[in-house]
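User: Run a structure prediction on this.
Assistant: Running it now.
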Amino acid sequence: MNSGMLNGRWSATQAGTNAATTATKAAVTGKVIVVDHISGHADTDALLTLKSAATVLAEWKIDVSLEGFMIQVPQGLWMAGRDEAVTAVLSASTADCQVNIAGFTL
């Protein structure tokens, strides 16, 4: 890929306490957002959902009794629709959670 096509790296992080949390990368007019990193932590079982607008791109069940506090998802590339925002939604927390997404725009 021609590196001149990339519009720089971005990262979006959101922390939560006793409720769900959502990290959002706003839409960029005329561009496609690509997510290549997802991480975070959770203190209770939860569902982590990556969305492009209302479309679910990927979903992971977080089981803290098996996986521990840190959220680890497989490496990959998830592409949003043109002119669409991307969100990573962590569905639950009792006291401490965080979700981070990062990537680039095309």
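Helices lie at 64-67.
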